[in-house]
Every structure is written in C-alpha cells, then in structure tokens.
Amino acid sequence: MKKSLTVLTALGLLGTSLPVQAGIEEDIAAFQDYFKKRFPAVSLEDYADGVNALPQYAHRRANWELLMEFPPHDPDLKKGRELWATPFKNGGTFGECFKDKPPANKYPYYDPASDDLITVEEDINSCLKANGEDPIKNLDTGTIALLAAAFREQFNGEKMAVDVSHPEAVKWYEKGRQYYWARRGQLNFSCATCHVHSAGNKLRGDVLSAGLGHGVGFPVYRTKWSIEGNPWGTLHRRYGGCNKQTHANPLEPQSPEYKALELYEAVMNTGIPLKVPSQRE
Amino acid sequence: MRTLKTRFALLGAITLLAGTAGYAPIAAADRLPTEEGCKELFNITQNKKGWCAAINRKKGNCLACHTIITSQWPKGLPPSGNIGPPLVGMKMRFPEEAKLREKIWDATQANPNTQMPPFGRHKLLSDREIDDIVAFLLSI
Prior knowledge:
The complex is a heterodimer. Chain A is mostly helical. Helices cover 47% and strands 6% of the residues of chain A. Chain B is mostly helical. Chain B is built from six helices and no strands. The A-B interface holds A 186-189, 193-194, 197-198, 201-206, 208 and B 63-65, 78-83, 108, 113, 115, 117-118, 122-124.
C-alpha cells in the first residue's frame, strides 16, 4: 500500500514534468502534504489567499470578502499599470524588456550569464538602467511594488513552476531552505516555528498563515501599512517585518538571504496559481 | 437598519446573561492587575510579581502563546494566543518545581522542536523573574 502510494506520487509529479531535482521534489511533496493533513478542507489554490484561506480565520473572512468587492488597492493598481505602459524618454518600455524574461510564475530564476538569482524587482531596475533611467531605490514599498504588481498580475492563474534544474539554482535553494528552518534571534524562532508548526494558531490576536502560498499574492496592500502611510509592500518588506517580530535583525530587501528565501518559498508553492495583488489585514 | 438594531440588542442581552449566569462576580480588588496596572504596584507579593513578569510584553509575553486559566483574570487584558497549551493545574502537571523551572528556562531541553523561547538561556528573563513566575504558576 505504502509503496504504491509513493509510486503514485512520483508518477503524479513526473506527469507535470517539473524542472526540479529528485530531492527537491520530495521536499515539495512533504511540505504540501503536511498542510493537506493539517487543513484538509483547504485546497492547494486556496493558499494564495494567505491567512484568509484558513478555517481558524473564518470569523474574519467575511470582512475580507466585503473589502474585495471594492478592493482598496484598485486605484493604485491602475496607476501601476499606467506606469508600466508609459514609454521611457528613449521610447523603450517595460514590456519590451520583459519580452525575453520568464513569466511571473517562474520567478525568481537563476541567470548563468550574471551568475545570480534574479527577482522581478531586480529585472525592473535592470530595465530602467538599460534605458538610461534611474533605478528605483526603495525596494520595500511604493513604485517598485506597483510595477511588480502590474507585471505579475498579467500572469494571474498561471501555476507556480520555478526552474531549479541548474546546479547553482540548487545552491540558492539550499541556502533558502536553511534560512527558513534555522532558529534565530533572542526568541529562537525560525520561519517554520510560526508558519509551519504554528500555522492556524494564534500569536496573541493574530492567526498565523500557512507557509504554503507565501508570496503567490505579492505585492500586497495591507491595512496595517496603509495606516502608516505606505500601504503596498513587496515580499521582502514582509520578510523584514517578520524578522523584527522575532527580535532578529531584518536584512535589506534584495539581500542574498531574502532572495534565497523567496526561491525556497516559491518552489514550495509549485502548482499554486498566481493571484496578484492581494489585500491583507 | 431595524434588524441591525435588534441584533445588537440581542447581542447585548446574551452578553449580559453570560455575564450573570456563567461567572461568579469578582470584586475588582481580587482581580490580577493588567500590564498597565502592574506599573503602578510596589511591594507586591511574589505571586503578583510573577504574574506581572509573565504578562509583560517585554518580559515573558507568555500570553502571546498561552492563556492562563484563573478566575482573577483582569478586565481589559487583550486576548491571548493558543500556540501553547492553556496554563492550568500547574501543581498537578509539575509536581517537581524544578521541572517547571526548567521548562521556562529552556523548553528545548525537554522538547527540541518546541516553539517556546528559551527564556533563561537566552536571557529574556532573569533568574529572579523566572522564580517569581514559577511561584505564580504553582499558585493558580
């Protein structure tokens, strides 16, 4: 019985011909199975909605659904689309830069030419530079988030399928995996402490989201951030916030650690359709 | 609009009922202090010191993960989390005081995968504060 199950899972994964190594395939299956057992009523796609997907959050979900009828992020998103479509002084556009780039469901990707792991935010800035424009400095919030949303939303519904076949990509993956599971800071928390072992539980009043689905809906528009004046946030802004909560030092957005973490989370999300942008509490 | 009003009235009635039927009324003086209240207290008993160290967000912050079952729960204290089990019946759960102390000093000793921070080992709490919390927990 057990054997046939394993074979079935293997076949299932082979069927989708994932560009990942055997060890990584097992990691994905183990991670996703854990949450399937923990929240049997939640489907893989549902995890794109973050904490809103969990039954433990049901009492607040109606609130969120009401908000989504007239999403508060809409006016900004329109601005982002305009920015995306506006030609640079030299006549070039973001669209042209991204024509040869992978679709959003395959970010971040390893680029052998620069021997680097590349995120959407980095490709936006490379495009600006290549067209003689100033790169964006604030990589946490504001214009960078609006542009990333305008790019990523074009691929909504596409399933996450990051390519980790290159040996260097595997190294980045491994670095991200270690960061995710290592305990740090005075409170001795890892990402997994809160988002795997305590997913669905309450930390004071906050229900903790499942680690599965993290990033699929980013950038996000957050009520808490909007009160502070900068409602939009990139995934790395959120990572910084979580590091601070645990009394660990936050790292810079686009630091190698956060890029590796983004890759690890993106790989765990394999098969979840993109849903950009998102509204969060 | 009317239905909304009726609903509120109903809610109020239910809360009132729960308030009178479910719980014995507690005189304000018998309640434990809130985090704010703790700041104004001097010369308090070890138990109360322990409670104050436990609920302080900059100290134990135990309520982030545990509720503490006590009839003296103060009004106005924010709801607690549920990552850890409710702290109740501590004397029965921990007949050996040293075991309880060790749990708070470094929960990873008994359970390497615990989510609970190692309060003593990582100097989140002083020895003194841990003693106070242990005394308080054994009193509930």
